[in-house]
């Protein structure tokens, strides 16, 4: 029986060009883990899970391609460059395909495999691309797909199991008009390309029944990899060329060179199948390298590594190595970030999972400045794991404290780790009370903040003395939570903020949000609602923030709560929290109902930036009644909808989003108010026809009146600032776009004592 299976008779695609709309976004990605390479005579391109970068071999210019430029944010699993069509093809774990036209930078979204019904959803991963006579053969976890690069249309899909079922295809190649595919379950299958009925699985024969994970054509012979063996087919059977020390994970033939890669070895062979080089990872100085793939272009090796970008060496001299990678943080999965007043940004990579189990991976600390990224490796952080929060001394930003959810607290001065405070520190942090054995030590510090006197406060998980302080004189003091919190020896703590009254608000896994003030009796109080008492997900608070109106915003595993006034802590014992009720389609509903909230940050205009575990970012108006923005991976350059942390540079308005797949930022209106109007500026100015965003007027004082008129004095827009920046959509009171011309911007303080006049030109 024939099985006809067409993805599409025509190519369904979306053409996108990212330009003006993404001018407000920036990417801060890591390029360390290179999982595939695409080669040409003039350029080498490496892909990571979320990004790509290339090096021009003539000019040595490095170019990056990220979600800011139009990548999808989905996991990249294979890339290929077509010399004939000057296009780079990008395959993903979910079957999505992107085609980048190198001459224009335009990206074509080809969702045919991803969206095709009838295939097992989790078997759409793209493993490899092979081009032959203008046709692209796409190896996937379910089979093989043909795609025409000239017409941008799909051909047949080949399901190659013994009965026409799905079977994983690792790689394909063509020799003498026969196509060969290495499969996971059915050995090497082959078929005659001149056969018009190849979508009939019975037209495919078993070429070799062995277990092969890679296949190429080299010097008119089939060469394949099977576990620790590289073999070539000499006409009758496979003959072993090389026995590998480790299983082969990548094989490719390019420019008369055959290259085979294992985790720690790269082997190269010439046209006569003689070995020309053998690179061992331990021979590369000053790094512990692990390999993913390798190729040779113009006589030079290019090796994609797990942690060191692309390593290159000459085929004639494999003792001298160079590293190729753009500047970036150590990893893309950033757990927490913190900006500083002088436009620096700190990042850490591994705190704990949703159940507060520490991440014991060996990650360091990163810092971004005007000089680029400084990555402090694990070898220099005194053995501290599970680095979870960053606290910058507000009076000396060269002094930074890093909370560890396993190893205490690190102190960094002038970019060097100088101390670690843990259970060995007298009167300092303590190890958890209930340990698996007496020798197990885990000092779990999370939320930390400086008070106005310069004392560093922090919470200490699963011990009686849950609240601690490192005073300016170097002494330590602890406060017992016994008698207040239930199950305190089993309770985990998270983020913490200190309000204007000196009250420390911090989240917990069992009791919701806890307030602490050493100058009030009782010292500990609970911010909670009786209505939520039976809901453990509501009581598992994750994020906490104090806004500009002294309200406490609380993010939990199942929604949002607000304490109307932080001042209640000073005089009341019952700190009742409430949901925010909005009207949606005429019906009252709870704002962010059942959303898993991961972070809340308040900007200079008192808007709330809300990060979630799987729904991206919400920007809410000061009272939460209006959603000003909703950013997701689908409608913005966010590389993931899973948000770990958010922070705002109050001076520039840049909002940073640390996701599980990379760090990006959005330049909004989140600036702090200025002291006067001397620094007012407008951007963009002029506003050109292709610009589709909003005009920003920054450098404002709070509560300033802004009027915009045409050159004849007709009022087209008026508003009052909250914070340091306002936006204008270039419409006359939101109704219609204003015409080309010069527009006057009149700014005045609330009492009229300060004024400013600016101009903005609009070109339609």
Automatic annotation (TrEMBL):
InterPro entries: PorZ_N, Secre_tail, WD40/YVTN_repeat-like_dom_sf. Residues 682-762 form the Secretion system C-terminal sorting domain. Keywords: Signal. Transmembrane segments: none annotated. Residues 51-205 form the PorZ N-terminal beta-propeller domain. It comes from the Bacteria. It holds the Pfam family PorZ_N_b_propeller. The keyword Signal applies. This is Putative secreted protein (Por secretion system target). The keyword Signal applies. The lineage of its organism: Bacteria, Pseudomonadati, Bacteroidota, Flavobacteriia, Flavobacteriales. Residues 1-19 form the signal peptide. It comes from Flavobacterium endophyticum.
